[in-house]
Amino acid sequence: MTAKIIDGNALSTEVRGQLAERAAALTSVGITPCLAVILVGEDPASAVYVRNKVAACEKAGMISLRDVYAADVEPALVFARIAELNADPSVHGILVQLPLPKHFDSEAILESISPEKDVDGFHAENVGALMQGNPRFIPCTPYGVMKMLESAKVPLKGAEVVIVGRSNIVGKPMAMLLLAQSCTVTICHSQSRDLAFHTRRADILVAAVGRAKMITGDMIKPGATVIDVGINRTAEGKLCGDVDFETAKEVAGVITPVPGGVGPMTITMLLANTLEAAERSLK
Ligand SMILES: NC(=O)C1=CN([C@@H]2O[C@H](COP(=O)(O)OP(=O)(O)OC[C@H]3O[C@@H](n4cnc5c(N)ncnc54)[C@H](OP(=O)(O)O)[C@@H]3O)[C@@H](O)[C@H]2O)C=CC1
Ligand SMILES: Nc1nc(=O)c2c([nH]1)NC[C@@H]1CN(c3ccc(C(=O)N[C@@H](CCC(=O)O)C(=O)O)cc3)C=[N+]21
């Protein structure tokens, strides 16, 4: 038996259709949801993501602004632009593409975004709200994963979850969301002893490491749900995940592919958060 595949492109199309309807309703009362994206530097992968985000916004009837800065830009210029976007009532969401060049204090940049417009959910105030079980914006990638689990009707209550990776943008918020759904959550990282011991216990395994094909079929419990967040590029320039899809799909019960899995859902939930911010501005 090979695993059932959760198609992130198909689910994205469905959810984005619903978002487009809500965006049209808001536009008809004079508010068009608007996302501002800031990109610093010429990293080609980041440029692709930003282009995808801008295109997805427009397709859903939302406005997107894009500011691109040279890698050696004076951080003060970016801070000034964020202050301007914070003060502009026609802008509902602000996203600063990560990672930033080394001479930037990323934390200070994220804290300078108005928490009401922080559609990534990375501001300390929003991280705190998520921890307290009272989120304002759910970080897009873990939010997308929750939608995928819901669409595949994966049971969460009491499930053994193992997350590989503990970053602020994926691993940690993912753990909080699954904990809130009464999963038993284990977080593994580069210092974990015997990774396979942990992964083999998982009913739901989330890989968010950034190491191509590191999770192989022998590390997966038969019938488990395997969520592959990783985006890696092979030497031949092909995209692949952190999961070795070929061996994993023979063991898992449910699996997400790369590309066409979590990536498109991340963009979808960014649109959802931007729309949500715009709807709140009405109140
Ligand atoms: N699909 C999407 O929408 C998105 C995809 N991504 C992708 O997801 C992946 C992870 O991203 P991100 O969380 O930002 O990455 P980070 O580099 O910030 O974090 C990677 C995590 O993996 C852990 N790790 C590294 N090596 C190992 C190992 N050998 N065994 C176990 N754990 C290990 C690290 O541990 P330690 O903390 O000890 O260093 C760290 O916690 C990347 O491929 C990224 O491109 C990211 C965001 C969105
Ligand atoms: N402030 C900030 N917020 C982020 O959400 C953020 C970020 N910075 N920095 C980088 C990571 C990465 N990320 C992805 C989004 C979409 C795809 C995506 O759509 N991937 C497609 C393939 C795209 C391609 O062809 O390259 C897929 O998986 O099918 C991937 C990765 C968001 N991130």
UniProtKB/TrEMBL annotation:
Ranges where the Tetrahydrofolate dehydrogenase/cyclohydrolase catalytic domain occurs: 6-120
InterPro entries the record matches: Aminoacid_DH-like_N_sf, NAD(P)-bd_dom_sf, THF_DH/CycHdrlase, THF_DH/CycHdrlase_cat_dom, THF_DH/CycHdrlase_CS, THF_DH/CycHdrlase_NAD-bd_dom
Domain Tetrahydrofolate dehydrogenase/cyclohydrolase NAD(P)-binding: start-end pairs: 139-281
Annotated GO biological process: L-histidine biosynthetic process; methionine biosynthetic process; purine nucleotide biosynthetic process; tetrahydrofolate interconversion
One GO CC annotation: cytosol
UniProt superkingdom: Bacteria
Molecular function, one GO term: methylenetetrahydrofolate dehydrogenase (NADP+) activity
Residue positions binding NADP(+): G165, R166, S167, I231
Pathway per the UniProt entry: One-carbon metabolism; tetrahydrofolate interconversion
Catalytic reaction list: (6R)-5,10-methenyltetrahydrofolate + H2O = (6R)-10-formyltetrahydrofolate + H(+); (6R)-5,10-methylene-5,6,7,8-tetrahydrofolate + NADP(+) = (6R)-5,10-methenyltetrahydrofolate + NADPH
Gene3D superfamilies: Leucine Dehydrogenase, chain A, domain 1, NAD(P)-binding Rossmann-like Domain
Documented EC number(s): 1.5.1.5, 3.5.4.9
Entry protein name: Bifunctional protein FolD
Lineage: Bacteria, Pseudomonadati, Pseudomonadota, Betaproteobacteria, Nitrosomonadales
Gene: folD
